[in-house]
Amino acid sequence: MLIERFLFINSEEVNSFLVACRNSKQAMIIDAGGFDERLVDLVEHYGLQVRHLLVTHAHSDHVGAVKLVVDAYPQIELIAAEYSFHGETRRPEDDEDFQLGSLNGRFHRIPGHADDMLVLYLNGHLFTGDVLFAGSVGGTSDEDNYFKQIEGVRTKLLPYPDDTIIHPGHGPNSTIGLERSFDPFL
Fold first, then answer.
1. Is the pTM of this model over 0.85?
2. How many domains does the chain have?
3. pLDDT class for 11, splitting at 50, 70, 90?
């Protein structure tokens, strides 16, 4: 499994990821907060086929460069809970399985920070968007949304093994074990 993080400093520092199966060379981009030519260079260097663009949620800092990604990879399949750009969009159900080459995954819908929030688990890695950060959780508009989000994190994400790596939409990586033990919001 190949994972490359791209940090974009727009209105906020936001993470985007290139994830690929080394065996099949199938790849996906997770969140398009910005676009960097280094991504294109990596895709070419590894001979990857970019098949999917996952939008964890439709906040502007996570979708600001969707057009640039689609222009670079016109055959790309957009995966999002509600966001649309052009053409068809795959809309995963909660707990729907996903495969990227030989990598096995599962989508989780965890509303709270945003109604359209999608989290992807893929072979020991969680791409959490703005649901769960290192030492924190994503902000919510009110108490009801906060409790929905915390419940989703507790029931859908915390059951993963302690060594599951969290790749959040902002900030550094963490693990489920660290968040379960030390995140004051959980």
1. yes
2. 1
3. low
Helix (H) or strand (E) holding 33: none
Measured in residues, the chain has a length of: 186
Separation CA 39–CA 102 (nearest Å): 22
Rounded to whole angstroms, the Cα distance separating 41 from 151 reads: 40
Question: 79 with 53: CB under 8 angstroms?
Answer: yes
Please give the C-alpha separations between residue 77 and each of 86, 100, 167, in angstroms, as whole numbers. Answer: 10, 12, 21
pLDDT in tens, 17-40: 999 999 999 999 999 999 999 999
Question: What are 112's strand-pairing partners?
Answer: none
Nearby residues of 130 by Cβ (< 8 Å), 6 or more positions away: 56, 57, 59, 62, 113, 114, 117, 138, 139, 168, 169, 170
Instruction: Give the pairing of strands 132-133 and 136-137.
Output: antiparallel
pLDDT digits (tens, 9 = 90+) for 60-106: 999 999 999 999 999 999 999 999 888 789 999 999 999 999 999 99
- Torsions phi, psi of 145, nearest 5? -65, -35
